[in-house]
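pasting input
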Amino acid sequence: MSAFRTLFWQGVRDVSPLILGILPFALISGAVSIAAGLSGLETMGMALIIFAGASQLATVQLLEAGAAWPVVVLTAAVINLRMLMYSASIASHFQNLSLRWKGLIGYLLTDQAYALPIVRFQKGELKAKHAYYLGVALTLWLVWQIGSLGGILLGAQIPPDWSLDFSIPLMFLALLVPALTDRPATAAAVAAGCVSILAAGLPFNLGLVLGALVGILIGVWVEGKTP
Amino acid sequence: MNVWVIIALIGLITFLLRFSFIWLFGRVEVPDGLKRALRFVPAAVLSALIAPAFFFPPGTLAPAWGNGRLWAGILAAAVAWKTR
């Protein structure tokens, strides 16, 4: 089997434990959207065109509440600001690819599609990084679309108080530990975690963005102090 | 405003946020300062993503030390650290 296919399937395998965590979220997002009065087509349109869970939920809620369209668009944009950080962080691994590949990689970029590959890339050199990324990201995309469709079809049968599966934070934790390569990186993580807890009350996921930014600054600062 | 227009706008903005740096890298020279900072993105983002999930029970913002998730997290971190 070619290196591309081997790495693609490695990505699929690595992301598969996350499916159980993503699927309920996708089901809920589909069901909530229908309950809020959007059509099945509009709901699938959101899953396909926006493809970002937290911002989709916020969009549905604001549309239902009758918010003005600039508010809806701006809120979703702010929630997705973190993608800018992911894009900047992962970009160097894809810089020699064609524009078409870059477009596909960008479209598929999510929290999980960023986290798994970036930690894998930093562990060691891969022959075809885009193949591994595609295995991870395309699987997540497929699960999201199928789950959204399931949510539309099952609708009200899905209990609205399903808590998001705890397996996702646990998986991210397992990824965080190898990312703590040295003292500056550890300082960055500690600072980011503390700030995100303190700022957890901020709307639009801004606690995450603020925590990450402070963490990055602390990391740079500690590195500068280390001889 | 038509729902489809709103969806298209959000989709476009979200795509541009995702595509931005992936597109820019290889086209422009990335400043050294930015490169140095980017090294810390995985550790900082992952920590900021998960810390609230372990610290607060679902749906609340009140820290709870009797919260099973916090202990599950500490245990998982210890195992991940030992076996890395």
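fyi Residues 3-163 of chain A form one domain.
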